[in-house]
Write a structure and sequence with these properties.
20 helices, 795 residues, Rossmann fold, Elongation Factor Tu (Ef-tu), domain 3, 26% helix, Alpha-Beta Plaits, Ribosome-releasing factor 2, mitochondrial, GTP binding
Length: 795
């Protein structure tokens, strides 16, 4: 794939208003056509000279060797391009496989809008539902792809979108078909543009050629256009009084008389307010419908000054300026950015991807990592075009770029907040207010790992290099975790699923050239407690006074007490709860040599160490435990180190654990939510396999395109779906989906992960290769008595 020249790339970064910037992501289920659509966007924007193909392995955004070999997106890729001359789009193409959920989570953190791609044949799939819920609050447009396939259902998919995603829809365009003269099979050839009252037909021979025609009353498409506009205006009119007023007075009650400009303004408002979702359609592989999708991105999705500022640890006053972006606490010189991704490039070294929210970040600036308190000087700033870097002097509010330079090493990790001065190279001293220097964007949540594999150096001489490459791996992907068993010395690498660890193994061996042996993938088990400990109290000679107890944490409380502060200790649902915490607040006088942060960090450290190993099944970390600590928090004036504080808390934690008997500890295992699609004729065999040896709890059996969501169906949106105007689905009439051979059932079940680690081969055997499944983490549950002995042997 060939990018335009560097001079042309730089033209994309010419000065433009922040209102013309769009930070968007593409989200979808695996194989819905995310990367195929992205490649067409790049081609039609002029970013690339030819269209990349997933099957041929020459795409821009999927540039890793593993991505090209497997034909899937593994890591999110950032690329920038222009549309309609003066709009700039920063696009992040995200993975669709559930094992790479964290890649999606951290991308969503920095996006202002999303394009959701749906497969017109498969409809709304499980991973799409999951990511839609994760992206709550982010405005979206929807693109129904693969309209050229047999069994594609535009209207059916729109209905599923309304009911499963609980959203109103705005039909921006509607598919149109011609018919084969001999077979009368429908052939998808373009769209009916409801807003602009045009028919758009794409040439099969020339991907750049579109035939655009008007829709007179004599046109066979006029009725669909009229009804589509009526539906559009009625949905928008529920919240847009100006539109209704114009319709009744200026348009004289005729839906066809409302201008495209007025409709676009109303659609944009409804989208940004998350009142409704614009829906478009096409067939990306056949180059149909991509240009209208790009128009929708710039017309309907928000700019950075229209999007919500992310949540912070402080109550920050945020206003917006058309040039400066977000202005925090009325300080126009404050630059705030979020690090959302770290990678190690073989040529450029460590690269930290950031999103700037306010102000301007200049190369060479001294910055503060407000998450860690470390100051460091940044080197070059670059913007990425997939794997091509372009150096820039600064990044302005709303822009996405990369920090480089040796000083970045170990100073920034995923989720850290960067603060600096807009103008001064070392202007941190200008921010004398504690509130500004402590401002942090809320961190990126890391989902818990559910599988592990042992990692061993080939020789003792390879041990240090193994530790180094594992640090690199975890820095790049924090959803991977490395742990070492104190007794056996065995190193474990844990991740989100079998494919996740396979990719990590490939990266270790092929990209990082690690001299290691990787064991087979095994399930990650945990240990928990079944009752509360007693309350333990102690006061030292120096005057340190603490009270401590340990409780099981079955569920989070709806409200936290005013005098409590909860500190999340790990991905294992463990918390440190500090009671009587008022004296540790910034507003209170603090005369001691030991800082507040040192006290808190000492207690967090001792708690995390104590929970790394259980007491009955010693190799297992503890899960769902709450360590409650209460103190007067008044320390000896002469104390300069928290070491005695640390020793006291560790001692009390040990005493509390000694309260428990062996029968008070339990083994937990990961339970997965599974959605299994199988031909109806094979359903009996699949159910027997699930409920027999795999100990599955079957929750429901549904038709593939049933109009219900995984949760209880929302009656309001079911009614909206029934009332929504939808055109006919001619592609379904000849799809022959009524018999058992083609009818697909979806089995929803909850299954212990141990029983389905290598399930795909068995499912293919039971369904002659026609079955498929999606699996995601549900939570940890106690291992049943009948399976405990076998699992303990495995541990």
């Amino acid at each position: 794939m060939i990018l335009r020249s560097l001079c042309q790339i730089r033209s994309y970064y010419s000065k433009s208003s922040i209102s013309k910037l769009r930070n968007i992501g593409i989200i979808a289920h695996i194989d819905a056509g995310k990367t195929t659509t992205t490649e067409r966007m790049l081609f039609y924007s002029g970013k690339t000279k030819r269209i990349g193909n997933v099957d041929q392995g020459d795409t821009i955004t999927d540039f890793l060797s593993q991505e090209r070999e497997r034909g899937i997106t593994i890591q999110s890729a950032v690329i920038s391009f222009n549309w309609q001359k003066d709009f700039k789009i920063n696009l992040i193409d995200t993975p669709g496989h559930a094992d790479f959920t964290f890649e999606v989570i951290r991308s969503l953190k920095v996006l202002d809008g999303c394009v959701t791609i749906l497969d017109a044949v498969a409809g709304v799939e499980a991973q799409t539902e999951k990511v839609w819920k994760q992206s709550v609050g982010i405005p979206k447009i929807c693109f129904i792809n693969k309209m050229d396939r047999t069994g594609a259902g535009y209207s059916r998919t729109v209905k599923e979108l309304i009911v499963k995603m609980n959203t109103r829809v705005l039909l921006i365009n509607i598919p149109i078909f011609s018919y084969d003269k001999e077979t009368r099979e429908p052939i998808f050839e373009g769209v009916l543009d409801v807003v602009n009252k045009k028919v758009l037909k794409w040439s099969r021979e020339d991907p750049n050629k579109i035939d655009v025609t008007d829709v007179p009353e004599s046109s066979p498409f006029f009725e669909q256009l009229s009804r589509g506009r009526e539906s559009l205006v009625e949905t928008l009119g529920e919240t847009d009084e100006q539109l209704i007023e114009y319709f009744l007075e200026e348009a004289e009650g005729d839906y066809m008389n409302i201008s495209a400009k007025l409709l676009n303004e109303s659609i944009r408002k409804a989208t940004i307010e998350n009142y409704a979702t614009p829906v478009l359609c096409g067939a990306s592989f056949r180059n149909i419908g991509v240009q209208p999708l790009l128009d929708a991105v710039v017309n309907y999705l928000p700019s950075p000054i229209e999007a919500r500022f992310p949540n912070t640890n402080e109550t920050a006053l945020v206003t917006y300026d058309k040039d400066a972006g977000a202005i925090i606490n009325k300080n126009r010189n404050l630059c705030v950015a979020l690090a959302f991704k770290v990678i190690t490039d073989p040529i450029r070294g460590l690269m930290t991807f950031i999103r700037v929210y306010s102000g301007t970040l200049n190369s060479g600036n001294t910055v503060l990592n407000s998450t860690t308190g470390h100051k460091f000087k940044i080197g070059k700033l670059v913007v990425m075009h997939a794997n091509v870097a372009e150096e820039v002097k600064s990044l302005k509010a709303g822009e996405i770029g990369v920090l480089t330079g040796s000083t970045v090493l170990d100073n920034v990790k995923t989720g850290d907040t960067i603060i600096t001065h807009n103008i001064k190279k070392d202007g941190l001293r200008s921010f004398h207010k504690q509130k500004e220097l402590k401002l942090q964007i809320n961190p990126i949540n890391i989902p818990p790992p559910v599988v592990s594999a042992s990692i061993e150096p080939k020789t003792l001489g390879n041990k240090k290099s193994m530790e180094t490459v594992l640090q690199t791996l975890v820095r790049e992907d924090p959803s991977l975790q490395v742990s070492v068993d104190d007794e056996t010395g065995q190193t474990l690498l844990s991740g989100m699923g079998q494919l996740h660890l396979e990719i990590a193994r490939d990266r270790l061996l092929n990209d990082l050239n690690a001299e290691v042996d990787v064991g087979k993938v095994v399930v990650s088990y945990k240990e928990t407690i079944g009752k509360n400990s007693d309350l333990h109290k102690r006061e030292t000679e120096l005057g340190y006074k603490l009270e401590l107890k340990i409780d099981p944490l079955y569920e989070m409380p709806k409200e936290v007490k005013d005098d409590e502060v909860w500190h999340y200790l790990s991905t294992d649902n463990n918390y440190l709860i500090m009671e009587n915490h008022e004296t540790l607040q910034d507003s209170k006088e603090w005369p001691f040599q030991i800082s507040r942060d040192m006290v808190v960090n000492a207690l967090i450290s001792s708690s995390m160490v104590a929970l790394q190993k259980g007491r009955k099944f010693s190799s297992l970390p503890l899960h769902s435990c709450a360590i409650r600590i209460k103190g007067n928090w008044w320390l000896p004036l002469e104390a300069t180190s928290p070491s005695e504080f640390l020793a006291l808390s560790r001692s009390l934690i040990l005493e509390a654990f000694n309260d428990f008997r062996e029968e008070d500890f339990f083994v937990l295992e990961p339970i997965m939510n599974m959605s299994i699609s199988v031909p109806q004729q094979d359903m009996g065999n699949v159910l027997q396999d699930l409920t027999g040896g795999r100990k599955a709890n079957v929750l429901s059996i549904e038709d593939e395109h049933t109009l219900s969501s995984g949760d209880s169906p929302n009656i309001v949106f079911q009614k909206i779906a029934e009332q929504q105007y939808l055109p006919p689905d001619p592609t379904l009439k000849n799809a022959n989906l009524s018999d058992n051979t083609h009818s697909v059932k979806v089995i929803k079940a909850r299954v212990p992960l141990k029983e389905v680690v290598s399930y795909m081969s068995k499912l293919r055997s039971l369904t002659q290769g026609r079955g498929n499944y999606h699996m995601e983490y549900h939570g940890m549950e106690r291992v049943t008595a009948d399976r405990l002995a076998a699992i303990l042997e495995e541990i």
